[in-house]
Amino acid sequence: MNQDSVSGLWVYLSARPLLGLTMTLVAYGIAWRIHQRFKSHPLANPVLIAVLLLVTVLTLTHTPYQRYFDGAQFVHFLLGPATVALAIPLYGQLQRLRRLALPLGVTLLIGSAIAIASAWAVGAWLGADEQTLISLAPKSVTTPIAMAVAEALGGLPSLTAALVIATGILGAMTAQGVFHLLRIRDAAAQGFAIGIAAHGIGTARAFQLSPEAGAFSALAMAANGLLTAVLVPWLIPWLKALFAAH
């Protein structure tokens, strides 16, 4: 097949609405094979590899992101049912959840507040403007909630989405090393920490550690999304006053 034929085929495919969906599935399939080849090593994160592959293809073909997303939005639609389905493994941990309700509640409140405040503090220390700081604040929760919170408070939803994905990938890649360093071996503690810090991408990693860690990560991800939506508007005036004084 010569260059003209390849160019003609790409022009034809780029006009098809399912191109984005096909690209997403192929990129993740390749990323998953690479992840398996490296024996599920956390640094070979399949989400990161798939994102890099897609960015490379879109850049080389000068394909606008909106055209890609028009075809890939079916995957975006499935995020909702997939999130709800996480309740199934969580149901299997119901008795243990009841016993741990108080420590989990305290951990959730402290973890959520620290995630918001630390993001704001680092951004302020680096000289970010207020709109960027607001975009940073909800970075540890799932994308739809984070984008809605940022937009409602004057942040940039597109920047928030990128930060959410980066946070999830970083959390998934480093969680196991942090647990080893701090000697955290309890699966429930591992999963709950991942869910608070790294939302859905981290939860996918937690299920690779163990079903119990995945179930507790799913719980933390859902609860942290709700709590962050409440805490961010309440904490921002305090954070503004605190860092304006320095």
UniProtKB/TrEMBL annotation:
Keywords: Membrane, Transmembrane, Transmembrane helix
Localisation: Membrane
Cellular component, GO annotation: membrane
Coiled-coil segments on the chain, per record: none
Keyword Transport listed: no
Pfam families in alphabetical order: LrgB (PF04172)
Chief site of localization: membrane
Membrane topology type: Multi-pass membrane protein
Highest taxon of source: Bacteria
TM spans (from-to): 12-31, 43-62, 74-92, 104-125, 145-175, 213-236
Designated name of the protein: LrgB family protein
